[in-house]
Write a structure and sequence with these properties.
40% of the residues lie in helices and 14% in strands. It is an alpha/beta fold and 258 residues long. It has a single domain, classed as Alpha-Beta Barrel (TIM Barrel), CATH 3.20.20. The strands form two sheets. The chain has a six-stranded parallel sheet with strand order 3-5-6-7-8-9. It has a three-stranded parallel sheet with strand order 1-2-4, sandwiched between helices. It is globular. The structure holds fe (ii) ion (FE2). Fe (ii) ion binds next to loops. The site of fe (ii) ion has 5 residues, from loops.
């Protein structure tokens, strides 16, 4: 398995506080069957000014430390970018990090309210050549209330990453139920840990992958944690076989499941 969303770099955001804690996270991940991770520190213009060069240096430092410790675990650079008016220019100018330096971008939207004009923003962003992974939309209150909105974004070309802990019910039963429904409707493309440390929000995928396999089939689950992450690392589009979102019932709101 490859984890495409993990806060593994120390001292950059609310992830590990030290290199030792980064290494402890890697050991946890390895024991769980994860063989590599894209390091995705937050970027926010005010709170987390982590730019591409600093992330590249931190990843290289971690990579060398892993080699020195003889730990076979791959790390790639990335970032979890917050929505911002300057986002597109920041990426185009090389100031902000994409996933492994390619066209895939991990985007986090505000959780409480839908940003105005978000549908147009996403469409224009995709049209400008970016590939987009939406970070844990199951945690956004407006998606929880109206998952049809996410269906429209997926049909537009947005890829969806849900977080392992969400599927396992650690963020409450409603979010877990939404994850199950999204999986059933082929609206999930990536399962990631969003790991932040060794105590809470740990970098684990195995149990959630097993649950995803029960819901959507094991072949599907493997795509979420291996086939699709590999495509991102190689800067390729996703192989879409089996991933066309299922059409929604017209008369009965499909999302009224609780
Ligand atoms: Fe994150």
């Amino acid at each position: 398995m490859i984890d495409i969303h993990c806060h593994l770099l120390s001292g950059m955001d609310d992830g590990p506080a030290s290199m030792d804690e980064s290494l402890a996270m890697v050991r946890l991940a390895l024991a769980d069957g994860i063989r590599g991770a894209i390091c995705t520190p937050h970027w926010h213009p005010m709170f987390w000014p982590n730019e591409r060069i600093a992330i590249a240096i931190a990843v290289e430092t971690l990579r060398r430390r892993l080699q020195a410790e003889d730990i076979a675990f791959d790390v790639w650079p990335g970032s979890e970018l917050s929505l911002d008016a300057d986002l597109e220019a920041g990426i185009a100018g090389g100031r902000l990090a994409t996933l492994n330096g390619g066209s895939w971008v991990l985007l986090e939207l505000p959780g409480a309210f839908p940003p105005s004009g978000i549908d147009t923003f996403l469409l224009n962003f995709l049209r400008s050549g970016h590939r987009l992974v939406l970070a844990h939309p199951e945690r956004y209150s407006y998606i929880l209330r109206d998952p049809v909105r996410l269906h429209a974004w997926v049909e537009m070309g947005v890829a969806v990453q849900i977080t392992a802990a969400s599927l396992l019910g650690r963020l409450g039963p409603e979010i877990a139920t939404l994850c199950r429904v999204l999986l059933e409707h082929r609206l999930v493309h990536f399962l990631a840990s969003d790991g932040h440390g060794v105590e809470n929000r740990r970098p684990l995928l195995r149990e959630a992958c097993r649950v995803a396999g029960e819901i959507a089939g094991i072949d599907h689950a493997v795509r979420l944690v291996d086939t699709h992450p590999q495509a991102v690392i190689r800067n390729e589009p996703l192989p879409l076989a089996g991933f066309k979102p299922l059409s929604l019932p017209k008369k009965q709101p499909w999302f009224k499941f609780w």
